[in-house]
């Protein structure tokens, strides 16, 4: 697996080289294969539309405290018992989709639709979501649908913390930590939250989010894998990162910025900044089997002729990454053994 080759301070326009194993095999398993490649410029929203998703602040809206109160009450009430006011508060604050909450309120007031209480929300089809709320954007519709299904079957929730990670966190923290902040605007326009990450398809990644480079796709796949390992627990992830902030250990949770600092610390300051916006982060480096010294050297923009520097980098990278991969391997073996015991017990 290789990122696009780059020269110092200048990115090359050559396409990504792919390999038969590693991520390119894993991506095909994680994502459903699409028969036709989508165009990278196929975003359905304009930069002007992005502003409405980025600039709105609930703190400027009247009745915000009341909406928070309704949401707190809703936490202990099944969705089918929610009142219309609670549904609107949920749309505006919990999902961060204020533009649809306002539109819904206007439609109710005008008589275009009836009161949208919880039971009605649970029964709405995609067409009714589109007509009643103006949800014409497929990704926005998916976001609401996933959130509704979570409330329909709360016992099936695999990651309790996933609902706390909204699209503001994905765009403002998660993508920069992966070294992919250049995609933040696309993700914001599509209002991608953690629930959507968990159910993201390759087609959506390419068509709506304009992530067409295989290396960047791999970075996102392994970034999601890391979130699953951490059970989408933001605090637990932050704690692990804090513990290795000044120690070269636990690279699995390292951010892109932490790898830039690491590159400087091993006397590669000349190349370190080339990792910015490269998609290199701990999940990719540790979990991707084909990621090696040559991969990192290419991401850093170290010329192939610099053999001594590349050998130095490979030695440093292996001493950092191999122990972490061994820990993952042991954990996987333990999980497989436990699964086998459970299966044999129920035979």
UniProtKB/TrEMBL annotation:
The identity of this protein, by name, is: SAM domain-containing protein
Region (Disordered), start-end ranges: 1-23
Q: Which residues form the signal peptide?
A: none
The record, for InterPro entries, names: Kazrin, Kazrin_SAM_rpt_3, SAM, SAM/pointed_sf
The record's CDD domains line, in alphabetical order, gives: SAM_kazrin_repeat3
Q: What is the lineage of its organism?
A: Eukaryota, Metazoa, Ecdysozoa, Arthropoda, Hexapoda
Identify the residues that the record assigns to the SAM domain, covering every copy: 82-154, 173-230
The family database entries (Pfam families) matched by this protein are listed as: SAM_1, SAM_2
């Amino acid at each position: 697996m290789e990122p696009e080759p780059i020269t110092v301070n200048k990115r090359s326009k050559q396409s990504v080289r792919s390999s038969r194993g590693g991520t390119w095999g894993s991506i095909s398993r994680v994502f459903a294969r699409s028969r036709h490649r989508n165009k990278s410029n196929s975003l359905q929203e304009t930069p002007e539309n992005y502003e409405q998703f980025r600039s709105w602040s609930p703190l400027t809206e009247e009745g915000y405290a009341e909406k928070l109160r309704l949401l707190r009450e809703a936490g202990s009430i099944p969705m089918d018992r929610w009142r219309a006011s609670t549904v609107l508060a949920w749309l505006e604050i919990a999902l961060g989709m204020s533009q649809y909450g306002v539109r819904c309120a206007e439609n109710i007031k005008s008589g275009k639709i009836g009161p949208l209480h919880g039971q009605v929300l649970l029964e709405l089809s995609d067409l009714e979501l589109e007509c009643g709320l103006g949800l014409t954007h497929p990704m926005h519709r998916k976001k609401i649908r996933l959130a509704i299904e979570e409330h329909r079957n709360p016992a099936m929730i695999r990651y309790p913390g996933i609902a706390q990670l909204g699209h503001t966190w994905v765009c403002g923290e998660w993508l920069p930590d992966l070294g992919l902040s250049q995609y933040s605007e696309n993700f914001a326009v599509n209002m991608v939250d953690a629930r959507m990450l968990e159910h993201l398809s390759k087609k959506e990644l390419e068509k709506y989010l304009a992530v067409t480079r295989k290396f960047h796709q791999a970075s996102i796949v392994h970034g999601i894998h890391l979130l699953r390992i951490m059970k989408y627990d933001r605090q637990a992830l932050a704690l692990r990162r804090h513990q290795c902030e000044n120690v070269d250990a636990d690279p699995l949770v390292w951010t892109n910025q932490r790898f830039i600092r690491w590159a400087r610390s091993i006397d590669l300051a000349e190349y370190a900044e080339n990792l910015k916006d490269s998609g290199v982060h701990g999940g990719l480096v540790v979990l991707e089997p084909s990621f090696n010294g040559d991969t990192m050297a290419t991401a850093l923009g170290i010329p192939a002729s610099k053999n001594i520097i590349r050998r130095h980098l490979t030695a440093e990278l292996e001493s950092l990454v191999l122990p972490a991969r061994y820990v993952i391997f042991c954990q996987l073996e333990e999980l497989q053994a436990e699964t086998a015991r459970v299966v044999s017990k129920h035979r």
